[in-house]
Amino acid sequence: MTQMPPPVLAPDVFQRRLLGWFDAHGRHDLPWQHERTPYRVWVSEIMLQQTQVATVIPYFERFMARFPNVLALAGASQDEVLHLWTGLGYYARGRNLHKAARVVVDEHGGEFPVHNLDDMAALPGIGRSTAGAIIAQSTGQRATILDGNVKRSLSRLHAVEGWPGRPAVERRLWALAEHFTPRERLVDYTQAMMDFGATLCRRGRPDCARCPFNDVCLAHERGEERRFPESKPSKALPTRTTLMLLLCDDDGRVLLEQRPPSGLWGGLWGLPQFDDGESLRAWLDARAPGAKLAPSWASFTHVFSHFRLDITPQPARIARLDAVGEAQRWYDPEQPDSIGLAAPVKALLSSLAPFTLTAPAGPEPLHQEYSS
């Protein structure tokens, strides 16, 4: 086995430099920092996965206003939760948040198991690093984190070769993260590690001139800051196509269907989707006889992390259709319901003028979001 090189700094030196930088330049007034309960920290950590702080803040504040504690969240419907998550992306996070709240209430008496890392990590949607962040941030107990910001910072500081998703590379990074984690000021330290990667050791443009580690950073010494961490081996994203049916009645309502509870846009409400025009027309003949098709709208692309979806909206009108199937509902864009909507569906619905089936004025809807 190849022996790993030693860390570039002793833990106490690393901690002193990092916390000195944080005291002067870190973020101290984020909404979830006041007050730091396990519930508030947990919601913020889940929202912050793959999402920037500025985007998260208004979602977090709306979420706290509606669900001020885990009992309120556990007692809510999935529709209510996903409605407040709409537009934040990666919808599995919202579904898992709801599931975890119910586990906390049903199996832990409404209290987060913050004194047991394994129990925290076992909650839906959490895992080892997020569990560590929740424990450290809400209780001050010693717990190690290794989110994307920390991986990037440690990879550059030590010029760690390889994609962090590889088990051997990840083990090396966990060892470094554990090596540097202190036993005091855990709340500040974990926030400092996240802030350092997000605001200074940034992905595209690291600010090496202001970095408290620029004299020991191996990537900086080599002039290879952008090479670390190494990217995941790339492969071309496949493209799929779909027709989305915009079936409107004379009251201006649009027919929606609820997606299955897991998978693409799981649990969200969306437009009926079809692989081709033939299957769409067969569906209308069976479910909405008498519906009349209008010219289709221009196609647009929605980008997921693992494929591209080319969407063609297909408007149709029916005078009235009172009977709808299971997991279907009529939706009035002028008086929207509090339900979770797939992001491109929300964009399409917001572009509808009452009682029209013509394409919306201005540019065709285009929404790109890495979500599931």
TrEMBL record:
Cofactor(s) essential for the protein: [4Fe-4S] cluster
Enzyme Commission code(s) on record: 3.2.2.31
Protein origin, superkingdom: Bacteria
Binding note for cofactor: Binds 1 [4Fe-4S] cluster.
Keyword list, A-Z: 4Fe-4S, DNA damage, DNA repair, Glycosidase, Hydrolase, Iron, Iron-sulfur, Metal-binding
SMART domains documented for this protein: ENDO3c
GO MF terms held by the record: 4 iron, 4 sulfur cluster binding; 8-oxo-7,8-dihydroguanine DNA N-glycosylase activity; adenine/guanine mispair binding; metal ion binding; oxidized purine DNA binding; purine-specific mismatch base pair DNA N-glycosylase activity
GO BP, one annotated term: base-excision repair
Domain HhH-GPD: start-end pairs: 47-199
Alphabetical list of InterPro entries matching this protein: A/G_AdeGlyc_MutY, DNA_glycosylase, HhH-GPD_domain, HhH_base_excis_C, MIG/MutY, MutY_C, NUDIX_hydrolase-like_dom_sf
SUPFAM superfamilies, per database record: DNA-glycosylase, Nudix
Catalytic activity as recorded in UniProt: Hydrolyzes free adenine bases from 7,8-dihydro-8-oxoguanine:adenine mismatched double-stranded DNA, leaving an apurinic site
Function: Adenine glycosylase active on G-A mispairs. MutY also corrects error-prone DNA synthesis past GO lesions which are due to the oxidatively damaged form of guanine: 7,8-dihydro-8-oxoguanine (8-oxo-dGTP).
Family: Belongs to the Nth/MutY family.
NCBIfam families reported in the protein's UniProt record: mutY, PRK10880.1
Official protein name in the record: Adenine DNA glycosylase
